[in-house]
């Protein structure tokens, strides 16, 4: 009987008696050394993943081991669902204030009232850029009075040259000599502060009417909590862990994950440290590590508990 040079394991020749004690000692030694090697390899993989994610957040490319796969989740705007959030260069945050509408005098460039009739319909009457998110409910237009016969009006909403919403048709069937305000209702189209909209007036009435002002009425979209949800990421064979970095500010966010559309699981923070966002703002880097099942569909979601919570960016490495 002899021992191996590196681990001191028992070896036998054909004439040696079999010893279960020695065999069990061999297995114990292999298990101990193997566990230590696995722990070191895992730690190296996590460190490599952390370095990779931090570099991607900073807009840099680095080389990395083949057993570390970085998910393309570095831009918060790539989220599959973010209806409760607003994005800007300062990151993603809750919609804490919204757009309720505005009243404005409607004029041509020379200061005269805009005239509308069927001959120049539809005609652009107003360009707006909302100050926040709001669900459009109506547009009220004030025009000069006159004797009106039957006609049909409508307000059309364009964005970038594309028709994005239109009001219900306003149908006039009786003669009225005093009516000067006409209200056109919408079904809650969401106005986006990142976009500019052109309002067009459409009518079948042949006589000119002169528009003096218009009022937009909207319901502000305000949320006290919300989720940033990642696209579904399919996990390939051999992937066992997720290392997630989230760059946040203000109130600490929560992170949850689920596999194959099952129930959501809370991920625990294992490291917190000071960092900087891509715009240079001071923030907190929260790192999460959790086990997964190979060949599964993974979803991640980051919860913003209040208006002070901000997500500057997030990225994941699959080990």
Report on this model:
This protein is mainly beta. The chain has one helix and 24 strands. The protein has one helix at 20-57; strands at residues 2-3, 10-11, 69-71, 85-88, 91-94, 101-105, 114-116, 123-128, 134-143, 151-159, 162-166, 170-172, 181-191, 197-203, 209-220, 226-229, 233-234, 241-249, 254-259, 265-266, 269-276, 282-291, 297-304, 310-318. Strands 3, 4, 5, 18, 21, 22 and 24 form a seven-stranded antiparallel β-sheet that branches. Strands 6, 7, 9, 13 and 15 form a five-stranded antiparallel β-sheet that branches. The longest helix has 38 residues, at 20-57. Mean pLDDT is 75; it is low at 37-90.
- Number of strand elements: 24
pLDDT < 50 stretches: 37-90
Mean pLDDT equals 75
- Mass-distribution shape: rod-shaped
In helices, the fraction of residues equals 10-25%
* Count of helix runs: 1
Termini gap = 41 Å
- Largest β-sheet summary: 7 strands, antiparallel
Order of helices and strands: EEHEEEEEEEEEEEEEEEEEEEEEE
- Proportion of beta-strand residues: over 45%
The SS-based structural class is: mainly beta
Using the CA coordinates, give the radius of gyration: 32 Å
